[in-house]
């Protein structure tokens, strides 16, 4: 979870049990349980996974209730943990990506998450197969038409409040709202209804990295029991639902899931992070029509006023035969203005320098400059999904990032401007599970998540049980 998210929550005295002791199953017991879980998954016809903060701690995001959890340290009067990277640059864990592979294979039918980190969506779980019960720190939604907008920046508010942006759906334009719940907010029907439906259909609910304390969410896995379903809990702490579970595994979630994938003979796919930005070139003739006044802007695809959190600076230069002064844009909004002779043509070169948390340092791009008087508006037809898929494949094949491609190009006649949207691979993670046999015949796991980083050098509760029962009455 985000430290910022925890700070934005309304204050309540009782956040439940914190500072919970962690337990680790002995290696031979853990291996037996992993194999048992793998068999249950293999036999399952309707697997549902229910996740909590414990699946994201290996992503550098602190949990809440563990020995070094946010609420634990707050209660003890200690300093909060330091995030290992910006929240918006957190990347899916081995567990997140294993769930993606299970979904693609048709084994995993639905994911229910209590997390607000948005990592299930970023990992590749389809939105229609995901309930984010408590919201998503990177999602805005339109209360009028229901459109959703996944951002590359953390939305500034929580508590279903209006944000500073509007819906871009034609004939709508309503003010958007954040999607993250505060303590007093009820679970949205859009999220809770499909979650309940799939839990009732499930023959196996796998709970990963959750203390199962926040109501009413924690009661969802129990709904599979009436239909004969089974529950497996993987968590380092004991939970109030352990007695209802068929199997309780005390171990690191990544280690358990990696072992399950190995038992199922399934590989964990890599994660490729692709970010979008647009370069907008606006041109106009001077009063005497001898010169062109032009403005160059590098902006977010989410709106001209939105930040680009993954870009630190942009170096702009020109063709060798031009005498224009180079520029370094190091403050947002990234904007520069120039005046040139009307008939000049040349190339503009960009070096996009990425911010901390990105695996690549920079990307080189170019844009031709030529003034044409036109009254036509047009948009070039580009297969965006094909471009994105090609970038992913190249990143994995080359084991590197920094690849880029154009996914949108449009021209506007008044004022004369051209906008080019670029997609660029900013991070890559591959996941390896190395196993070796111990003397007693049991497997020892070594988990690795590797990126392509280089050393950088730069110039609770939602409702009480009484309230929940009252709402059902």
From TrEMBL:
Lineage: superkingdom: Eukaryota
Cofactors (names): Zn(2+)
EC numbers: 2.3.1.286
Basic residues composition-biased segments: 453-464
Active site: 134
Deacetylase sirtuin-type domain mapped to chain residues: 27-267
Binding site for Zn(2+): 142, 145, 167, 172
Keywords carried by this UniProt record: Metal-binding, NAD, Nucleus, Transferase, Zinc
Region named Disordered: 449-473
Coiled coil: none
Any single Gene Ontology cellular-component annotation: nucleus
Molecular functions per Gene Ontology: histone deacetylase activity, NAD-dependent; metal ion binding; NAD+ binding; transcription corepressor activity
Pfam short name (any one): SIR2
CDD domains per the UniProt record, alphabetical: SIRT7 (cd01410)
GO BP annotations, alphabetical order: negative regulation of transcription by RNA polymerase II
Enzyme class: transferase
Subcellular location field: Nucleus
UniProt xrefs under PANTHER family: NAD-DEPENDENT PROTEIN DEACYLASE SIRTUIN-5, MITOCHONDRIAL-RELATED, NAD-DEPENDENT PROTEIN DEACYLASE SIRTUIN-6
Entry's family note: Belongs to the sirtuin family. Class IV subfamily.
Name assigned to this protein: NAD-dependent protein deacetylase SRT1
Organism placement in taxonomy: Eukaryota, Viridiplantae, Streptophyta, Embryophyta, Tracheophyta
């Amino acid at each position: 979870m985000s430290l910022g998210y925890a700070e934005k929550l309304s204050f309540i005295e009782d956040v439940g049990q914190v500072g919970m002791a962690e337990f680790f199953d002995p290696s031979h017991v853990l291996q037996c349980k992993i194999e048992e879980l793998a068999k249950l998954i293999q036999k399952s016809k309707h697997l549902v996974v229910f996740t909590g903060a414990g699946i994201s701690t290996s992503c550098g995001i602190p949990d809440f209730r563990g020995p070094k959890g946010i609420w634990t340290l707050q209660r003890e009067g200690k300093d909060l943990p330091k995030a290992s990277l910006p929240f918006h640059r957190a990347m899916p864990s081995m567990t997140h990506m294993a769930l993606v592979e299970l979904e693609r294979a048709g084994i995993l039918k639905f994911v229910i998450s209590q997390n607000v980190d948005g990592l299930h969506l970023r990992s590749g779980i389809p939105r229609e197969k995901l309930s984010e019960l408590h919201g998503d720190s990177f999602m805005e939604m339109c209360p009028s038409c229901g459109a959703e907008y996944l951002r590359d920046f953390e939305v500034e508010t929580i508590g279903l409040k209006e944000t500073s942006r509007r819906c871009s759906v034609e004939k709508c334009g309503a003010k958007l709202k954040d999607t993250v719940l505060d303590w007093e907010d009820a679970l949205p029907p859009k999220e809770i209804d499909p979650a309940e439906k799939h839990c009732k259909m499930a023959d196996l609910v796998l709970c990963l990295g959750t203390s199962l304390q926040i109501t009413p969410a924690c009661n969802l896995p129990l709904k599979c029991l009436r239909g004969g379903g089974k529950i497996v809990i993987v968590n380092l702490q004991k939970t109030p639902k352990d007695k209802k579970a068929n199997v309780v595994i005390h171990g690191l979630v990544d280690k358990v899931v990696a072992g399950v994938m190995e038992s199922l003979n399934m590989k964990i796919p890599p994660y490729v992070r692709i970010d979008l930005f647009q370069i907008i070139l606006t041109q106009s003739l001077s009063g005497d029509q001898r010169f062109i006044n032009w403005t160059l802007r590098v902006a977010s695809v989410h709106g001209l006023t939105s930040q680009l959190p993954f870009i630190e600076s942009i170096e702009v230069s020109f063709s060798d035969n031009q005498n224009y002064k180079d520029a370094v844009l190091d403050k947002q909004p990234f904007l520069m203005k120039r005046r040139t002779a009307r008939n000049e043509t040349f190339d503009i070169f960009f070096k996009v320098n990425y911010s901390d948390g990105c695996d690549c340092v920079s990307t080189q791009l170019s844009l031709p400059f030529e003034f044409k008087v036109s009254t036509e508006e047009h948009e070039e037809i580009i297969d965006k999904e094909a471009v994105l898929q090609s970038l992913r494949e190249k990143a994995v094949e080359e084991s590197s990032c920094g690849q880029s491609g154009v996914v949108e190009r449009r021209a506007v006649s008044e004022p004369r401007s051209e906008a080019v949207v670029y997609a660029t691979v900013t991070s890559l993670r591959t996941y390896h599970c190395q196993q070796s046999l111990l003397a007693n015949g049991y497997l020892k796991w070594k988990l690795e998540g590797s990126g392509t980083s280089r050393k950088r050098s730069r110039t609770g509760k939602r409702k009480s049980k009484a309230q929940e029962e009252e709402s059902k009455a």
